[in-house]
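Morning!

As promised:
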Amino acid sequence: MPLDEMKEGYFAGIFPYLVTPLDDKGRLKESVLADLVDHLIRKGVHGLTPLGSTGEGAYLDWPTKKRAVEVVVKAAGGRVPVVAGVNNLTTHAAALEASETEHIGVDGILVVLPTYFPIVDEQVVAHFRAVARAVSCPVTLYTNPKFAMWDFTVDTLKQLADESNIGYLKDASGNIGKLMSIITALGGRFKIFSASAHVPLFVFMLGGVGWMAGPACLIPEQSIALYEAARQKRWEEAVALQKKLWPLNVAFQRYSLAACVKAGLEMQGFSVGFPLPPQRHLDREGRKVVQKILEDIGAL
Amino acid sequence: MPLDEMKEGYFAGIFPYLVTPLDDKGRLKESVLADLVDHLIRKGVHGLTPLGSTGEGAYLDWPTKKRAVEVVVKAAGGRVPVVAGVNNLTTHAAALEASETEHIGVDGILVVLPTYFPIVDEQVVAHFRAVARAVSCPVTLYTNPKFAMWDFTVDTLKQLADESNIGYLKDASGNIGKLMSIITALGGRFKIFSASAHVPLFVFMLGGVGWMAGPACLIPEQSIALYEAARQKRWEEAVALQKKLWPLNVAFQRYSLAACVKAGLEMQGFSVGFPLPPQRHLDREGRKVVQKILEDIGAL
Amino acid sequence: MPLDEMKEGYFAGIFPYLVTPLDDKGRLKESVLADLVDHLIRKGVHGLTPLGSTGEGAYLDWPTKKRAVEVVVKAAGGRVPVVAGVNNLTTHAAALEASETEHIGVDGILVVLPTYFPIVDEQVVAHFRAVARAVSCPVTLYTNPKFAMWDFTVDTLKQLADESNIGYLKDASGNIGKLMSIITALGGRFKIFSASAHVPLFVFMLGGVGWMAGPACLIPEQSIALYEAARQKRWEEAVALQKKLWPLNVAFQRYSLAACVKAGLEMQGFSVGFPLPPQRHLDREGRKVVQKILEDIGAL
Amino acid sequence: MPLDEMKEGYFAGIFPYLVTPLDDKGRLKESVLADLVDHLIRKGVHGLTPLGSTGEGAYLDWPTKKRAVEVVVKAAGGRVPVVAGVNNLTTHAAALEASETEHIGVDGILVVLPTYFPIVDEQVVAHFRAVARAVSCPVTLYTNPKFAMWDFTVDTLKQLADESNIGYLKDASGNIGKLMSIITALGGRFKIFSASAHVPLFVFMLGGVGWMAGPACLIPEQSIALYEAARQKRWEEAVALQKKLWPLNVAFQRYSLAACVKAGLEMQGFSVGFPLPPQRHLDREGRKVVQKILEDIGAL
C-alpha cells in the first residue's frame, strides 16, 4: 500500500478480522489481544478489524467491545489503521456506538446490521445513512445475507453513495456475479473488500482493494503474498497461491467462524479461548481438519 | 382457567404479547403500557407476556426491558400471571437477565434465543438448560425458525424434559404437523401455546393450552371467545370464529409484527408509538388493511 | 358419501393415490394394479387416483400411463369414481394427454404441473385454463411447492374460478394457514382435498371434502374411519384417530413418497415392485420404520 | 483450440447452448436451426450444444429432440463438434436416449438430470454411471441446483471419475468457491465448462476449458474474444471484456433462459419463435433491457 494512500486514509490490503480473546467467564483477555495485534503487524498486515463477525461483535456487551477497541488501538500504536466493527440491531444504538468508537481513536468503522425481523431497502438505507452521519471517519458497509435478513442491492448502494464518508463495501454474500454487477453499476464509488465467502483473488481482479476476514489472523504472510501477487498482476502465481489457501476458507465457512479461527490461533500459541456459548467450540474432528490445513499451508 | 390451576402456576388461555410503547427517542412510555395492561385484564385475558418478539425484546437495552417488566408486574397487580420474555444471544447474559427478571416478580419467563451464527442442537439444549437453572419460576421455551437459525427437534425437546421447571413450549414455526409430532412423541410433558403463525384452534384441538401472541392485544375478547369455544368443545362455533379472526393473523405475519400491532393499538386509542428503527412503520396501505380487518372483526 | 352426491359427480372422501406397479424393466404389472384396485374398493374407499405424485406420474411415458388408467378404470368397473393424474411440463402435451385420458373413461382428472424453469402466475393460470378446456369432466387442481417452482395464490385461484369444470383443489403445501386464507377468500368455489403434507383432520374441519394421498393405499379402513368421524362431527374421536395415523404421514414425507407406499404394499402382499430409478428404494432402516408404524396402526 | 486436441475429441472453447426454434404449434423450424448453426460456426464458435437447458430439452418430446440433433449434426457438417443434451427423469429413458443420440452422429453428450422427487447421492452416481455406460462418446456431467433437487458433491464426482468416458463437468451452481473446491480435490480429472451463472473468466482462470451457455448464441464473437484473451493470459484485457459482457449474463439469469435468448435472436434476425408454454415470453420491458444490452455489447 503506497504511503500517500495511507496518509489519505485509503484502506487497502490485508485486514485480519481479529478474534476477541475471552476467558471462561467471558472477560476480555487484554494481553492476549495486544500480543496478537503486535504479532500480526510484525507479519506485515495492512490494517486490523476488531469486532467483525469473527470478533463476536454480535455477542459482546458494550463495555467489553469498548475495551477491545481500546486495546487494539493502543497496541497498534498507529502502525496500521484500525477499522472497528459496530454491530447493533437498532439505528439509535448503532449511531451512539459508532460515535463512541470513533472517539476511542479508530481510523474507520465497519457497520454490521444484524436483524431479528426482516427489513426492507428503505430502512437499510436509513440505518447506514444515520450511522455514517454519526461519525466523521471513513465507513465500511458490511452485508452478509446468510446471517441477516436483508442484503444490499445496486439501488440501495446508489442511494448510500450520497454519504461522502462511506468509502468501502465488504460484501460477504459469496456471490461474485453480484459483486461484478455492483462494480459495473457503481464504478469505483465504493472500494471493495473481499470476505472469506468470496474467492479473494477474483475480488482483486475486479478491482477490490483488499481482504478483510478472519482467516488472515491465521495466515497473515500467505494472505499478504496473495494480495501482493494480485497487486503486481502476477496472476498465474496468484491463482496457484489462491488454490493453496482455499481449503482454509472452506473450513472457515463450514465450521462456526469464530470457533475455527480461535482454535487455529490456540494451535499457533495464542491463548484466545473459546467463542461465547451457545456458540460451538471447534470439536476434535474440526480441530484435526484445521490443523491439517494450517500445516499444508505452512502456518503451523 | 380454573382457579386451582392458577394457584399451581398453570398458565393457560390468552396471553397477549404486549407491545413496548416507546416515544420517538426510544424511551418507554410507562403510563401507556400500564393503561394497556389494565385494559387487557379488564377484557379478560388470562395472562400477559411483555418482551416477546412483538414486544421488541430483541431491540431493547436491559434498563428499558427491566422497567417494562416492572411496569407490567405493578399494573397487573397479581390479577393475572406475567410471563416475561428473556431475549439474548449469549447463554451467560440470558441466564443473568432471567434471574433479574424473576426477581422483579414475574410468574414465569419465556426464553427467546436469537442467533447471529447458526448453532447446533447440542448448544440449543445447553442454552435453554442453563437459563432454566438460573430461575425457579416456570419456563416457556420459544422457537421461531423464521427469525433464528435453529429449531427444536423432538430429540432436543426430549433432552430438555429433564429440567423440571421447563413447563411450556411456544412454537412459532407454523408447521402444525411438526407440532403434532412433538405432541405425539412427548405426550403432555410440555404444555403448548399457539403462536400466530399457527391456526390457534388447531393447536387447541391437539391439546394446546393457550395462545400467546401479539394479535391478542388488539382482539382480546374475540381471542378469549375462540379459546372458550375450544375449551368447551363447541368445535363448529370455534371454526367459524377462527375463520373470522384469521385475516388478522395473515396481516400480522405479512407486515412486521410489532409495526402491525402498534398501528392497530394506535387506532384503538393507545398511544404506543412506532417500532424502533430500522424496523419499518406500518405504511398507509398496511394501516388500511389492518383497519379494515379490525372493523370486520368488530375490534374498531 | 351420499349416493345423490355421487350421481352428481361430486367427489368426496378417501381417494388413495395409487402406486403404479412396475417390474424391474419398468413395465406395468397390470394384474397387481387390478388386484390393488379391487382390494381398496372392497375396503370401502370412495374413489381412486392413479398417476398422482405417488403414482410416479412424472416418471412414466404415455403408453404406460395410458395403460395404467385403462386397467384402473376397468378394474373399478364403475364402483367408485376414478380421477386420473395428468402430469406434463408443457401446456400442449398436458391438454392432449388430458383429452386422451378422459376418453379412456375416467370420471375426472387431477392436473399436476411440474417445472424445469420457474414460471409466473400468468402462465400458471393459462396452463390450467387450457387443460381444463381440453376436457369436459371435472378437474382437480394440484399444487406442491416442494416439487415445482410455483404455487397457487388466492389471486390465481380467483382467476381459475371462471372455468366451470374446475371443481377441486388438492393443495400439498402443508401450510394450513394458506388453506384457510384460500377458503376464506373463495368460499366453497373449489372443494378442497387434503394432501398428506397436511393434517387431514384439520382440512376436514375447514370444510375439506376428502383426502387424496398415497398413505390411503396402506391404511384405507383407518383413513375412512377418520373421514367418517370428521363427517359426523365426532371431533374428539377424530383427533385421537388422527394422532394415531400421523406417524405414517411423517414417514411418507420423510422418505421418497412412492418408495414408502410401495414398500408398505409389498409388506401387505401386493407385489408392486420398486419406484423407477433414480428414485431410491426404501432402505432397510426405512422399511423397519414403516413396518413398525403399520403394525402400530393395525395395518399389518 | 489446437487441432490435435480437436482430433483427440478434446472439447474446449465456446459452445453455444442452441435454442430450439419452434413454430406456434410447437413444431421444429428446421431451416432456422440450420441457419443458426451455420451462422455460429462462421462466427468461429468451437462447438455446439443443442438441447441444453436453453434448448428446452426438458420440454420437448423425443421425436422433436431427435430431429433437432439430426439437423444440427447435418448443418455442422463436421466443422465443429456437437455435444447434444440428454434430459430425462428416469435412468432407463436417459440411457436409451443417450444411445440413440450417439447413433445420430454427435461427438459427445451432455447429461441433464431433472427431478420431481428429491434424490440422494447414491442415486445420482448410479444414474450418471448408467447413462455413461450406454454410450462410447465423451460425456459431460451437468448440474444446476436451482432447477433440480440434487447437486454434485466432491465425493459423488470422485466416484464418477471411474467412468473413463465421463470427461467434462458443466456446473451451473454459480458458486465459484465450490468449483475451486472441486478442482482442488479432483485436479484435472474432469475438464470444466463454465455456465452463465458463473463468471466465465474466473472459471477460465481456475483452468476451465470453455463456456457452454445460451448467451453465446447472441454474442459468439465477443465470447470467443474473452476465451482467447484468457487462453493467452491477457488477463487485464479479459477482465475488461468480462465486465462488458456481464450484463447479458445477469439478464439471462433474471429472465427465463430460453425466453431471453430466443428474444435476442429474433432481434438479430433469426425467426426462432417463442419458448413452449407455460414458459413465459420475454415481455416488452425485458425485450428493451436485452436490446439495450446487445446494443452496448455491439451485438445488435
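Chain B has a mean pLDDT of 95.

Hope this helps with the figure draft.
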